[in-house]
Amino acid sequence: MATEFDPVADSSGIRSQPTTTTAFGREWNLTRLWYGFVGTAGFLAVWWAGGREVPSYLLPTPGEVAGALWAELVSGELLVHLGESLLHYIPGVAVGIVAGGLLGIGMGWSLVIDAALTPVVRVLRPIPPLAWIVFAIIWLGLGHTGAAFIVFIGAFWITFYNAYEGVESTSRDLIEVATTLGVDSNRRLLWRVVIPDALPGILTGVRTSVGQCWMMVIAAELFGAPGVGYEIITSANNLAMARSIAYMLVISVVFLLSDWAVRRVRSYLLDWQQ
Question: So which residues are the signal peptide here (predicted)?
Fold first, then answer.
């Protein structure tokens, strides 16, 4: 949204229609794509210019990073280390989302569960997931299980609060209408009315968890768990900054792909609301 100056608006301040085209089953805003291309090219140019002025162990050029990324891909090391990260990312996110969603729905729906667990939640929730790394190392070690535990903590609280708020904010009028129309049990009311109404909020929590937990993965691996994060810090310690940045870009690409997948699933599950 433009506030002070809109390059797509004419001199009278009226917003003109952007140039669009249709391809691959969707409409593309060519004006926005052009601005994005110019911005990306400008960023790469500044990066290249900076990399030319300093040693590569301080700031490698985009070409050097691309070369390091290609070398890791060809050697197969990239896929190996990415697979190691996924071995604790996927279980941690999956279990955290399920557990957090179930507890959030339960506390949001049941006054008894809410009253019993709210004190515990208020004590544990402010503790950052990374603060549990010490316990993960002591209890589970530096392997995949310990890293998955850290990821689980992050996904759990994000999904929990979105599910809790979604259920708790369900319209009272909607529940009364459903009761009037014959939904006469708490179980049917929860499954047929409350959860569908809270689903957008729950799926927002899922999407946020999928993205934020990549940060938890990298943080856990910085302490020794195998994976992409471990390669980032190891390469930096050896002044192989091109390789370190290459693995940082790998995380960015995987994040974008996982976010796209979650958005597709969300659109499918919420298609009935259109």
Answer: none
